[in-house]
Amino acid sequence: PANPNPFLPVDLQIRHQMPHAGADRELDFARQVIRRLKAASPDIIFSYPLREGDCELRPSPLIAGLEEVSPEVPVSWAPQQQIQASAPRLLEQEDFRGPVLASDLAEGGTGILKDQALCPFRAFVHYRLRGRELDQAQPGLDAMERGSLLHRVLESFWGEVKDQARLLGLKDEERVELVEKHVNRTIDESIEVSDRSLIAVLELERIRLKGLVCEWLRDIEENRVPFTVLEVEKKHAEELGPLKIETVIDRVDQLEDGSRVILDYKTGESTPDSLLGERLLEPQLPIYAVGEAGKEADGVAFAQVRRGGCKMVGISREAGLLPKVKGVQEHKPLQQLGVDNWPQLLEFWRQQLGRLATDYVNGVADVDPVSYEKACQYCDLAGLCRINEAQAECGEGRL
Fold first, then answer.
1. Domain-by-domain residue ranges, the chain?
2. Does residue 310 or residue 293 have the better pLDDT?
């Protein structure tokens, strides 16, 4: 509406077309503004309020002839929010299967089926994609290096001693000296000292290994039924369903009655349950038992070499073959599975391993951990599989 300046004559303002002087001038100005707005962009949207208080409003006659539209109003005019709002919808596709394994011979040994049992995605990334967390530098020797040294010391020791009779024939001082000899030989042959600070670390490692091996020999090996060591660190080729792998068996012993047992050295904790469940969380011993070396085996066990916790953990055809290792019929979980004797146990293992091998060869890669504590807690792939984020989004928390 017109709103002339009260301090100037009205006719003067109209004659000179001064702002707000008259209705004709204001209408002409409004038409010019509308024309400029229409020319500013190929697409222009005019809006108007529907109500003012209790009064219903209509659009200005200057825009009343335009087509009425219902535009989508953005949540925010900020560029970042507008870009996100206008982004195309992501196409989600669940794909938990990789390509079929090209070769039936796979690299990775028994670790392949262990990861497949713990979580198929873990096996796929570790052994098909070769994805691993970068090693973190640390002073001294890491747990893997110390475990490898222990394996080599025991391999060297039994390569000379051969059987329990020779072990029992050694005096305490002779046994300690013999162990010390093999410890020193193993460290000297295995580790090249290029850093002077490593010398002190290796001296401590010599002391640790000597004490640990002597404890193992004294508490376990000397108290077993008589045995002869037939094999140490021998390579085998195993075929499990459609999968072929290469294995290295730590040790095979023959007992005085002709029975044979397969041993796998282990520095961590183990339980027989890891050999008996629907998922074989420790498949190496079952692999050995149903494979080439296990044709004549009557028992398998982890030789748990730990300071203050040396023991045998496994299962055998019957009790008494290995210290505190029960026979098949004494394990209740096996009875629940309908397994009553050693041949049935071997068949059970063969089926479980064949299923794991088939899944691996066929590219089954579901993020399906057996449990958070056993599969995820120390897994190096949490940032890749993002299971914690997925569980949080579903409101389920951790597994």
1. 1-70, 111-133+362-393, 143-223, 229-358
2. 310
